[in-house]
Amino acid sequence: MMQNSLVFDAESHVYTLDGVTIPSVTQVLKSAGLIDFGFVPESILDKAKEFGNAVHKATELEDKEELDYFTLDVPLQNPLDAWNKFKKDFKFTPTIIEEIMYSEKYRFAGTPDRIGTIGKDYVLVDIKTGVLAKTIALQTSGYEILSPVKIKRRIGVQLNMDGSYKIKEYKDKTDQRVFLSCLNIFNWKGK
């Protein structure tokens, strides 16, 4: 895994390697037609994206022990409580937090939310503030390809506004093959 020349522009959500744009996990799935929010008004999408980004930042700062609770917006408290409950209930210890990664073999990039341990097993966790859509199975399998450690479990965690959480574990062994098929579609469209 080569990350020295990998750059991520958060505002445009674009990864470049040596100045060349490479696809993200999300772009790969969108290109295959598996992610499409065209039916949702842009104002609603923007608000949901802004809130999701804020929750991700709060959980990231919490996991890095850098969160200043005095500056935390009130609406973020319950999803953050849900995240902390999940970590406690599953004894999940984050070891890789929001780190950009790149596959030299397949030439795509992404930023897994968390890679950590439950017991002795490495677990990939994707944090959501919305529903746990079916495509998260493929998203987490893409991140699994990028992981520098052998992943034993892939889990989606939905953080709810009431401070509770919901999980879904993704166990289908064909998920990686389907993700790589989506990557092939992306690459074919780019030719």
CATH topology heading: Trna Endonuclease, Chain: A, domain 1
Number of helical elements = 5
Number of strands: 10
Q: How many separate domains make up the residues?
A: 1
Alpha-beta classification: alpha+beta
CATH architecture descriptor name: 3-Layer(aba) Sandwich
What sort of overall outline do the alpha carbons produce when their principal axes are compared? globular
CATH uppermost class: Alpha Beta
Measure the end-to-end span. 25 Å
Most strands sheet? 5 strands, mixed
Range of helix content: 25-40%
Give the averaged pLDDT, no decimals: 91
Oligomer: single chain
Tell me what portion of residues adopts beta-strand conformation. Answer: 25-35%
The topology string of helices and strands comes to EEEHHHEEEEEHEEH
Summarize this, please?
Helix content is 38%, strand content 26%. The chain is built from 5 helices and 10 strands; from the N terminus they run βββαααβββββαββα.
